Amino acid sequence: MMQTIRAGLAGGLTGALLIWVYEALVWVGAQHLMPLAGIPRNATGLVFGKAVQDELGVWAYFLGTAIHFVFALSWGVLFAVVWPYFRRRGYEATFVALFYAMIAWIVMHAMIMIASTNHPNYFDPNVIVGGFMSHFVFTVPLALVVKRMLAPTQSRQS
Fold it and tell me: What residue segments make up the domains of the chain, in order of their start?
C-alpha cells in the first residue's frame, strides 16, 4: 500500500507542476486570462471567492498553492489506487487518464460551484474545453508516473 501511495503522490506532484506550466503557457501567455502571479492564488479565489482572495493579500498565494497541491496529490493517490484494476484488464494508462481528467474536472468544479459563487461560467463551452485540456495535462503525466512506479517487477530468469 505504501508503494501505491508513493506512486500516487509522485504522479500527483508531477501533474500539479505540469498543469501550472500549461496554465502559464496557455491561460497567461496565449489567452491573457490572468497575470502569471495569479496562478498560485487562483484556487483561493475559486474556493473562497474573490473578496476573501483579495482580503488575504499575500497569504492567498500560500493558501491557493496549498489547495492546489493537496487536491493534486489526493487525485494522484486515488488514481494509483484504481490503476491496478484497469491494468489487469489491459487498459493503457493514458486512455484511462483521459476519462479520469474529465471526471476530475467535473467533480472539482461541482465542488467549487457549491463552495463559492465566484467562478467562471461552467456552462460556457470555452471554459469546459479549456478545463478539460488543462486536466488532460494533469492526468496523463500523473498516469504515466503511476504506471511506471506500479509496474510489476520482472522476475530474473535463471
Answer: 2-149
